[in-house]
Write a structure and sequence with these properties.
By secondary structure, the protein is an alpha/beta fold. It has two domains: about 130 residues, Rhodanese-like domain (Oxidized Rhodanese, domain 1), CATH 3.40.250; about 140 residues, Rhodanese-like domain (Oxidized Rhodanese, domain 1, 3-Layer(aba) Sandwich), CATH 3.40.250. About 40% of the residues lie in helices and about 15% in strands. A five-stranded parallel β-sheet has the order 8-12-11-9-10. The radius of gyration is 22 Å and the shape is globular. It starts with a helix and ends in a 10-residue tail after the last helix. The C terminus is likely disordered.
Amino acid sequence: MKYLHVVILGAVLSILPSLCIAEEFPYRKDFPNVPVVELDDLKTGYDNNSFIIVDVRSKLEFETIHIKDAVHISMSNALFEDALKRLAAINPGKNIATYCNGITCLKSYKAAERAEKVGLENVYAFDAGIPAWAESYPSETLLLGQEITDTSRQLIPKREFKKLCLDYETFKLKAAGNNSVVIDARDAIQRTEELPGLSDVKLIPLDKFIRNVVSRGVMKKKSLLIFDQVGKQVRWLMYHLVAQGYADFYFLEGGATAVLEKQEYRDSGLGRNILSPAQKNMQNKDEQRKLAAQDKIDVLTVK
């Protein structure tokens, strides 16, 4: 019996590491054919130049924070696979690591999976993502274009971001304040419906809001109520707001999707809405410029 207990204990101990990994990286099991690279191993490859690191997030996310010397190829780019192929061709013999926003973000896996489907080899998902890298290697991380020197002061904990995310009823109450300004920061292609119960909403896509409002200190004395499509992009906006000295701002938890209970994108050519987020990738630049032109607002007139 004692021998049996020892055998059972040994078996339990042998599977504990894999159980811990499964808990820490909950989506690895959904991508069993995607090879992953661990944080320390990627740092070694970064130092000896055996890895090319690719940031597959949006332009806003990349410009806010990224691994130093990372190549930016957004997964939303219609030529994503072609760009990866060119990168591999000019870096023969090197590994490629794709990364996004950490363990709950699936883009790193999907990017590596797409690379494999077009015949690329030695492409790994770095699923710990930018949060783990920035905490472990701040001097090799650029935040708003500058190296991180003090993680405790410069990195905004997720819990602090969450404190500023309001449920819709609270969001509406604050939006009704005399000094409040509501910003719909969705892209024009995402803006299929208005949110019920809100009035005098300023339509300013996120990139324009940062460039034309935040960077110029416009509306700094206002109470800003901001929402995007799904409540994720505003986390990166928070870095820009803090850096420019804004102190009174809130975000809508879950974004417009949480209120409308659906995520739609405008099809400008057919005059209808479609549910697939892939539609955004199908729009060419001319169509997106036409849609953006519908947002007729001079943000500099808003004081």
